[in-house]
Design brief:
- By secondary structure, the protein is mainly α.
- Helices cover 44% and strands 4% of the residues.
- It has a two-stranded parallel sheet.
Length: 143
């Protein structure tokens, strides 16, 4: 949901093109699975089509070209750091932006709602939306 919302915001603000590459990849190596029905429904409620999303595993070569990786949990941050040998400053928890900018240093994890109710997905999306909106404001502040 986070990548879908971030991509949608960037496209809406930039017009027809996406000036920043946004990719979604997981650490479990699951490839080709669609987004859950609840995730699709929640984003559809906000005018975002997630129906073409397919899961894919994160590859080390992708990390080499990325400027920043946003993750949902500290465990994911540690796994990405180990995979890419990256400095921690290039890997941030999405919830670090929940309260605004600059990003918080002690951000909590954003737990995956998979297997939960539609309402849990909606609540998760509200957190994602707040974090992504603040993240985009932080990018504007950096430029």
């Amino acid at each position: 949901m986070a990548a879908g919302y971030l991509r949608d915001r960037l496209v809406r603000e930039a017009g027809a093109t996406n000036p920043i590459g946004v990719e979604s990849a997981g650490l479990l190596g699951i490839n080709g699975a669609p987004a859950t029905a609840h995730a699709c429904q929640v984003l559809e409620e906000h005018g975002i089509d997630l129906s073409t999303h397919r899961s894919r595993g994160l590859r080390r070569d992708e990390l080499e070209s990325a400027d920043l990786v946003l993750v949902m949990t500290a465990a994911q941050r540690d796994a990405v750091q180990a995979l890419g040998g990256w400095p921690r400053k290039r890997i941030e928890l999405l919830r670090a932006y929940e309260s605004g900018t600059p990003p918080a240093l002690d951000a909590p994890d954003l737990e995956d709602p998979i297997g939960s109710s539609l309402e849990a997905y909606r609540e998760c999306f509200l957190v994602i939306r707040r974090c992504v909106d603040n993240f985009l404001r932080s990018l504007q502040d950096r430029s």
